């Protein structure tokens, strides 16, 4: 392959706007499979997995202060560290106490309990998830109450420690005051008669009395403080939302999500799939012209035959210039419509008045016979004009009049509808005459009336021409030789036959892979075979 072919083969196909819809439609099985799979997964979740009920309890926190009415308006918010409170709510004390009350494992309670702290607020939301509605309500309320009790116990411990500190300080100051009072004189003397030492001791006792009074006042404020950390403002109660409440919404989301994922998968598969999508892409890849396009659907046989006529028109010049060279129809695989193209091409040449020898492998014989018999019904045989004297070909050789080989039967008559019942239609070139009323048989019959060799050609009259169907390798050089070559990926006979004639490639849209087509062209070029072009067939894309 030259540089031009290499560059053409490396080109990437541009996906246009029309492909956005066309690609998912062509790969509808993938889209449908993803959609059905995702929908079944959601249905399995809704039907098999039990619903999870989530109850929520709201707790409003308050700062624990001795005189909350004297705090500024914004001071209370900053008095509570919500991060610390959230940690206490999910701490071991709350979890263990809740698990003990609910008679459950602490790890299960920790997994089911979550807390939420709204930004800029003094609110804790306790959310508890469980399999039943009542258990979720009980778990949420119990966790909130346990948190408040644990938090109050912490405050009580802090108050007890603070009051103990006040008591110890008051006791110490009282001892100092008693010691100072012992140094005062016992008689009542006036201030003028007091000595400086006595006056100093009296001042010390007065100061200690003031300190004791202040400590007692501070202790009284601590003792009178409200240690409640907050209150439950919205206890959990039925009805409680569950994970299955939005079942219809889940199913609708699964359908839409499956369609979207399927379309994405279809486009991804298209981007990775190196298949031929158009005749222009095939021409750019192999550097050969397109001879035409033939429809390959079984319900479009008449249309496929009409398409093959245009392909035959493109090949007539080469056939006239090379009368002794076979026309080899080649494809990489056996599912690309090659046999249908070969049969319809032979039919088109016969309808144009040509004598055609069609060579096909054993596995393709039945499909070829079906095509030939269907064409015979569409185009009954016409009376053939006497053969003209042979003309020398362009290569200097002359061709003798076409005559069938011994033991060949021509099939015509009732299937062609050219004679009334009981009549006999004569053909000077036939070795056997079949009555018009006799049914057409696909089995060749010898001249003696007994079954002939299975390798004997089957002759079908179509229009003004003849198609001789024989096995591959046994074809006589009679008329235009058309070879239905086996797939090149598994059989080399097609490339070998193309060495003596010219190859016509069959490319199936949405089925033929770029690598397979490139390998087929490389094999033909390596063998020195000529390739006149390719025929594009319709494909559904597997």
UniProtKB/TrEMBL annotation:
- For this UniProt record, give its keywords in alphabetical order, as a comma-separated list: Membrane, Transmembrane, Transmembrane helix
Q: Where is the sequence biased in composition, kind Pro residues?
A: 382-392
Please give the residue ranges the record annotates as the region Disordered: 374-405
- Judging by the UniProt lineage, the source's domain of life is Bacteria
Where does the signal sequence lie?
Answer: none
Does the keyword field hold Transmembrane? yes
Q: By its UniProt entry, which SUPFAM superfamilies does this protein fall under?
A: P-loop containing nucleoside triphosphate hydrolases
Looking at the UniProt entry, the stretches that span the membrane are 30-53, 246-268
- UniProt protein name: Subunit length determinant protein
